[in-house]
Amino acid sequence: MKASDLFVKALEAEGVRCVFGLPGEENLDLLESMRASGLRLVVTRHEQAAGFMAATWGRLTGRAGVCLATLGPGATNLVTAAAYAQLGGMPMVMVTGQKPIRASKQGHFQIVDVVGMMRPLTKSTRTLISAEHVSSAVREAFRRAEEERPGATHLELPEDVARDSSEATPLAPFTLRRPVADEASIAQAVETISSARRPLLMIGAGANRKLTSEMLRVFVDRVGMPFFSTQMGKGVVDETHPLWMGTAALSDGDFVHRAIEASDCIVNVGHDVIEKPPFVMRDNRRTVVHLNFSSAEVDPVYFPQVQVTGDIANAVWRIAEGVGGPRAHWDFSSFERARMGLDAQLARGIDDDRFPIYPARLVAEVRRAMPDDGIVCLDNGMYKLWFARYYRCRRPNTLLLDNALATMGAGLPSAIAARLVYPRRKVVAICGDGGFMMNSQELETAVRLRMDLTVVVVRDDGYGMIRWKQGEMGLPDFGMELGNPDFVRYAEAYGARGHRPTSASEFGTTLARCLESGGVHVIDLPIDYSDNSRALGAGAEEAAAR
């Protein structure tokens, strides 16, 4: 068969249902093979958005999402998405076209070294130079993308190779059983945890990737250990659980960091060093038990003394069996004081009627409107910190935020992908006005796909997070202002519906109505960030106490 047909059949063998991307002259053969196969092509308005969608597909399913672009500018537009997937641990396969490699009549027109460009941003990248390599190359790209630690891979398919013929057939994917930790490491972890006085459980991004939620809930309930999470570990265990201590890496003065400082043992499940450090290790202050698929990457702030490497869920279950239950000498009184302070802080401001809306009220209204399995997709901005702290997730991967590359522009594309993965769930994108405008053209994609999707544009007419940091450094406000279109009319121009609430209560009503009425909705919501420093800065605990 033609190599492009073989490529598509190899994608189908991997379980691929849809491909995100933009067509180009150099991948028209592949496009035709996709059309003939029935594989779904989701045409986007920008390659970066296609990459964000593919990465989010991988994040939610554990199977590599696929995005397609042409050569030159199409491929370069995937660079940010490649970094997004690679740093975020999201399995994704990128496919780009290229001029014929045997004979081209266009010189160096649009030619850049795409493979060289992708090398530092991916787990693997290669050019296919023969149709005979297609089956093995596709299988290897998916294997590398999906195995721990997941990330991005890239295949370049030249135009003449796509037209070649081959007698090869797709290689069937295989089921890989992850190795389990050895008995000695489990026993060492059990002894370390049992002999501690104030052990504390931390849940990181790796636990969210493989959905170890059930085993960790059993661990928390049986062992009775308080727990907290990183931003990308939110929701692995229900955050309404009475032992939840909050989300780390917001500020050193936060309540959860008081609990961390008081602990003498941290059981660190699925920590990914790509995230901002949730705590800083110091010699002889506490013992850290590292549970992950691979050994710890040691750096100046993280050098765990006990390591348990292997399948996370299996290790958690075996350690819970070994510890058995709470130990009589455990003392969580300092944790309890911190949790009481956290609960009081999280209740503060959720009914604040000021408008532009107070951030805590924004989070509260979204939480009230969303069902437990609803998915909130955050872009990157000041509001992300408010959601990380105030939004209590009931299930894994229901608050999609990026604490790795932390790029702007991913919120709306991620929401579109989430809706495609889970067509029956409620999905909301929360975007700042800066991040929204970076990929706002994908409103047309959502409308064209006839999606039920709500986008909340949190508007402060500036780059709010950087403005806050500028102010915290004592610098004058400079370079942070921007202009915005009329977002209601902007939404309507795409065929969506626009809304402009004029009070906090009206926002809650509008959001609930949008979620129930179907179609694509954009809510223009001005926000009041004047309380950022008091609520999120280094003195957050003291401010809340007052």
TrEMBL record:
Pfam family, one: TPP_enzyme_C
Keywords: Thiamine pyrophosphate
GO BP field: isoleucine biosynthetic process; L-valine biosynthetic process
Location of the Thiamine pyrophosphate enzyme TPP-binding domain: 379-524
One GO cellular component term noted in the UniProt record for this chain: acetolactate synthase complex
Domain Thiamine pyrophosphate enzyme central, residue spans: 186-317
InterPro entries, A to Z: DHS-like_NAD/FAD-binding_dom (IPR029035), THDP-binding (IPR029061), Thiamin_PyroP_enz_cen_dom (IPR012000), Thiamin_PyroP_enz_TPP-bd_dom (IPR012001), TPP-bd_CS (IPR000399), TPP_enz (IPR045229), TPP_enzyme_TPP-bd (IPR011766)
Recorded family membership: Belongs to the TPP enzyme family.
Name of this chain's protein: Thiamine pyrophosphate-requiring enzyme
